Fold this protein.
Amino acid sequence: MSATQTYNKLVPEPTSDSAGYWQGLNEHKLLLQKCAGCGTIRHYPRPMCPSCHSMDSTWVEASGRGVVHSWTITHHAFHPGVRDDLPYTLATIDLAEGVRMNAQLRGVAPEMLRIGLPVRVKFETVKEGLTLPYLVADAGA
Amino acid sequence: MSLRDKAAITGIGETANSGRSVPSPQLGALVRAIKGAGLHPSDIDVIIPYGSAVVADDFVTNFGIPDLRFSATTPLGGASCVAAVQYAMGAMVADAKIGLVSGYGDMGDGSVAMMWRG
Ligand SMILES: [Zn+2]
């Protein structure tokens, strides 16, 4: 979809915890929170480190590479905004940094899907000020 | 069955309302309450969150709780936190170990948390 069309999907509401993540996507960077207390990386953005309970964190740029942990294929439009995408594959992946994320996986036929499939993150600006990540198979892995 | 003398408040915490995201002051206050009681956040097995804007999952993910046994909300507006005390005591009687009750003062001065040990 080009950025000039009307975007009719649900949009995020960045909070003080997640604003850095969304801003990073706008710069085509996948940023992860890193605990300033113990160095543990966590995702999705949240106020506190689940390991040491420090509330101080920094942002680190992820490699954008990972492997499929699981997936679902959606055939029903649970929201009108996704009707034109059907069917789409939503994947949960294990990033190389040791955390999981969800995103649409594109360009991989259902019969090619498998746990452990190498993928990488790409970026798509869907409307002004909003860039979202999606996944493709990582042919180089 | 009376709940009298079945559980006790063992920690209280408070933070300033820093203007950060809604869970932040609650998490900060709860960690103070937990540490004040000589415990670790992942020890918690019952969560009774304030009935709006946060869910038990917020505390599970931020505290790294591996095995939550019970959670509930007590939708009574500003009195939710008072009703939550009774819920937490009930859970203690039902064999839970450490309950967590969160409150949230949005009048400009932050968040109070209390905790029980059966
Ligand atoms: Zn940490």
Observations:
- The longest strand of chain A covers residues 65-74.
